[in-house]
Amino acid sequence: MPPSPTQPLEHFASTTTQGNLGAQPYVAEAMFEGDGVEQDVTKSLSWSAQAATQGSVLADFRKGIEHFEAKNEKAHAIAFECFSRCVEAGYAPAFWYVGECYLEGRGVKKDYVKAYEAFSKGAEEGDSRSQCGLGYCYYHGQGVRKDYTKAFEWFSKSAEQGNADAQNNLGNCYRYGYGVDKDYNEAVQWYSKSAKQGYAVAQLNLGNCYYDGRGVDQDYKKAFELYSKSAEQGNAAAQNNLGDCYCHGRDVAQDHKKAFEWFSKSAEQGNPAAQSNLAYCYYYGHGIAQDHKKAVEWLERSAEQGDAVAQNNLGNCYSYGRGVAQDYKKAAEWYSKSAGQGNAAAQFMLGYCYSKGHGIDQDYKEAVEWYSKSAEQGNADAQNALGNCYKNGNGVEKDDKKAFELYSKSAEQGDSDAQFNLGYCYYIGEGVNQDYKMAVEWFTKSAEQGNAAAQFKLGTCYENGQGVDKDCKEAVKWYSKSAERGDADAQFHLAKCYDTGLGVKKDYAKAVEWYSKSAKQGNAAAQFRLGSCDYDGQGVKKDHKKAREWLEKSGTQGCAAAASGPTPGSSFWSPLLLFLFLLLLVHRYEWHQHLFLIYP
After folding, report:
1. N or C end: fewer C-beta atoms under 10 angstroms in the chain?
2. Which pLDDT tens digit goes with each residue over 57-111?
């Protein structure tokens, strides 16, 4: 019989030496729990070992636990034998351990059916851990047909007995609507009960509820506290989330170094999301020295585990040659894997690969298909790209109205390219009635984000008074911004402003500088005008040889360049220059005639 609270432990310890072997397990248990005596696990195991040799069930159970926690198969086999003997003796707590051994293949061959049977027997005996294990089998369909309703029932029985694991699982049922109507409030209640017992997974789940504002008011501070508690216990997912809080400064001072540290701890445990985040730190040099090769290494670990974000980012590395040799084919392969999982960014990039023929055969119809999937998820880049397909009739029948609709969706999300395209639709009246004011509105939004094309068109609107009061100084301002970003048309127009004194003090040297930059990018009008400057020595030393070179380059692109030049009457239209240009056109015409004769 068990010792009475009034009987000293020493009495039962002394009786064991007198042959009272029944007292051994109680002495062992007391020492193990520190009940009425100083806790001493070593002595407890010693007493258990002595009792086990005499066939004591409790001692066998303790011995089983000792070997169950070990990290070698031999110990696990001993644990299974001990628990099996306990089960045969009808000791209820042992059923869960036998079930776990079968479930994990610990000390015995993995067998879900036998795991289910062991959990069932223990559950019927009222053992809370077995009830939770039985719920787990029904939840995942292991050893028995999946049944969320029964899983919910057994989790509930176990949770009511205070089992923290079951309370957390019950919270999951309410959160996702498994076996019961979805109820975030109930989920929070059960997560809270489990978390108060220090259950790390529940602390993580409750933290997620506070982070997302599900079943409770959004509270980043509370989420951070819960993630911290769970992370300190080694929960990899919580460590990743804690790193995310530090990375983005969620109700805590932004600290990339601490973010890197927590991502590292989680990544080392194999968490794919953390591995992807750690790669992000290495890629941008957040909390650690920038190292694209290291970024690729962690992206590969994460991508191989199927993380869609990592697969997309690894595709980007191969696409742009960051941390790895540029390889469009491998980029397309990783984009394809990620896109297949529904990643919108990857779907867009895969569509782009098809549209450009990067690493895969060019196929506009395939491009449209992937752009569409991404656009349906609200990806702004894809909406804009799909709009371009409809505008140009690439892979789909040309439809200006559809293009306008897609540009609108993307532009509303702040995509600068789409804002420019939408403005241009209004500017020329394509897919919508012409409206210069609306054009200016969207050109402005795009231009303020640094879009060079929009800055140029906004400049032309101010120069010509389209949709806005004419203002040449404002025109120069936007031409300058666009020109600095390398837009050849803007460079030419800015040069004309300096050449003619439009909105700015006349400055031939500045004009030549910008004509030159535009001409080098192939702008025919700029090449023609630069030739005239070289010939006349306007803003630059006379150089007839250079003049001829630039005129030839301009001429090969057609005489339209002349129409974009300064107004007649300027030195640009000197009789000799006109003669040279006309002579160039004549030679160009004769050259084409010659080709025609050779290849009729």
Report:
1. C
2. 888 899 999 999 888 999 999 999 999 999 998 899 999 999 999 999 999 999 9
Listed residue (179, 170, 168, 156) closest to 203, CA to CA: 168
Rounded to whole angstroms, what are the CA distances from 523 to 411, 476, 547?
29, 19, 15
Q: Which residues of 439-475 are buried (b: 16+ CB within 10 A; e: fewer)?
A: bbbbbbbbbeeebbbbbbbbbbbbbeeebbeeebebb
Which sign does the torsion angle of CA 574, 576, 579, 581 carry? negative
How far is 198 from 337, CA to CA, in rounded Å? 39
- Report the interhelical angle of 488-500 vs 508-520 (nearest 10°): 160
* Residue 310 DSSP label: H
Whole-prediction pTM value?
0.80
User: In angstroms, rounded to a whole number, what is the distance separating the alpha carbons of residues 402 and 577?
Assistant: 48
**Residues 457 and 491: beta-carbon distance below 8 Å:** no
CA angle (592, 594, 595) in 5-degree steps: 65
> DSSP string spanning 447-483?
HTTT-HHHHHHHHHHHHHTSSS---HHHHHHHHHHHH
416's CB contacts (< 8 A; 6+ apart) are 445, 446, 449, 450, 451, 454
End-to-end CA distance of the chain: 116
DSSP 394-454: SSS---HHHHHHHHHHHHHTT-HHHHHHHHHHHHHTSSS---HHHHHHHHHHHHTTT-HHH
Distances in Å between the alpha carbon of 577 and those of 491, 547, 580, 583?
23, 9, 5, 10
Cα(321)–Cα(211) distance, integer angstroms: 36
Which residues, in sequence order, are CB contacts of 453 under 8 Å at separation 6+?
420, 446, 482, 487
Considering only CA atoms, which of 188, 184, 112, 189 is closest in space to residue 145?
112
Give the gyration radius of the chain's Cα atoms. Answer: 38
* Tokens 């231009």 found at: 447
- Whether 381 contacts 419, CB under 8 Å: no
Handedness of CA 205, 208, 212, 215 (dihedral sign): positive
Place of tokens 């000293």: 8
166 HSE (CA, 13 A, CB side): 24
User: Which single residue is written with the structure tokens 């000799």?
Assistant: 576
Structure tokens at 560: 């339209």
Distance CA 525, CA 559 (A): 9
Q: What is the pLDDT of residue 577?
A: 52
Token pair for 74: 């031999």
Condensed to tens digits (0 to 9), the pLDDT of residues 217-261 reads 999 999 999 999 999 999 999 999 999 999 999 889 999 999 999
Query: What three-state secondary structure class fits 505?
Result: coil
